[in-house]
Amino acid sequence: MLWPEAPQFDVEKVVEACRAWLTSEGTYETVRTRLRELKAGENAYRAAGEKGELLQHLLHHGQRQRNDRHAELLKNTYTTAFVQRAEGRKLYDAIKASAIHGSCPLCGLQQVAQLDHHAPKANFPLLALTPLNLVPACGPCNLGKSNKLATLVTEEAFHPYFEDLGTDRWLHAQIDAAERVAIFEARPPTGWDEVKRHRIIHHFESHDLAFRYGEAAGSVVAKRRHRDADLLAETESAAEVRAHIRADAVSHAAYDPNSFETALLYALVESAWYLNGGMELLYA
Predict the structure, then answer these.
(1) Where are the domains of the chain?
(2) Model pLDDT, residue 209
(3) In terms of DSSP H, where are the helices of the chain?
(4) Nearest to 125 by CA among 10, 46, 38, 23
(5) Running DSSP on this structure, what letter comes out for residue 3?
(6) CA angle, corner 276, sides to 270 and 277, nearest 5?
(7) What's residue 96's pLDDT?
(8) Which of 62, 70, 164, 221 has the fewest CB atoms below 10 angstroms from its CB?
(9) Are 183 and 173 in contact (CB under 8 A)?
(10) How confident is residue 148, by pLDDT bands cut at 50, 70 and 90?
(11) Residue closest to 9 by CA, chosen among 108, 94, 109
């Protein structure tokens, strides 16, 4: 999973992009009077995110936001003016385009299809238009994250703009020769603290990544099985096949150490069954 850069524009620019629609609805001045408050909330959000205290900050302010007198107006501005109208959509698409190679940062599997409110707009309407609260995501990941804010630090969703998972491998796989499939699991590095370890496991489970990666692995195997089988037939050496796959694994890991392809390739490297002919049967 590769994190995108944070948006380089603020909530004021979003409000101005939505100005035509707000004016047509007779609500521009209403939102404008809240702009100082929206910007203050944006700055507090950024500060809390940078200090690693975003969940605590959101839990502290959630009740007040949920009952805000302009909650519906701000949510409707996002849904209609920001998502559907031309000027707002330009900024919406700019955030979507920040995803590296268009890949969802929450799974690295599917293409970005929408923006996810890290703090759900249903409970945090004052953050509905805040760019820092909008993260590119694919449909399944947006659904998997749900519209509820975690109440436990061990279940807090990762925020791509503020957190760095580093280059340590946490995603692993193994080949199940009996079932002829790859089994994926989240196996956090021992150097991670307990909260981070629990969070990555929760992320893996809540986004149904074991199933989704397992399905995607079939396509990867199908595209390489004949090449690996031909190499085995040509060299009569499982070691040669292993070296070839390992080179591919190292290349994938250099790009993204925790892509499902990286985990799968290292699993193939470690599978004597696959290296000695199992490639003809895996996902067959």
Answers:
(1) 11-155, 171-280
(2) 97
(3) 11-17, 19-24, 28-33, 35-50, 54-66, 71-76, 83-84, 86-97, 139-145, 194-206, 209-235, 238-255, 260-270, 272-275
(4) 38
(5) P
(6) 115
(7) 96
(8) 164
(9) yes
(10) confident
(11) 94
**Residue-level pLDDT at 76:** 96
pLDDT (tens digit, 9 = 90+) per residue, 222-272? Answer: 999 999 999 999 999 999 999 999 999 999 999 999 999 999 999 999 999
Residues 6+ apart with CB under 8 A from 174: 182, 183, 185, 267, 270, 271
Q: Locate 196 and state its tokens.
A: 């981070």
Q: Counting Cβ atoms within 10 Å, is residue 66 exposed (0-12), middle (13-18) or buried (19+)? A: middle
Distance CA 277, CA 260 (A): 22
- The predicted pLDDT at position 130 comes to 98
Q: Mean pLDDT throughout 124-135?
A: 96
Residue 117's nearest CA partner among 101, 84, 95, 85 is 95
The answer to whether residue 284 scores a pLDDT higher than 90 is: no
Looking up tokens 């290349």, which residue turns up?
A: 251
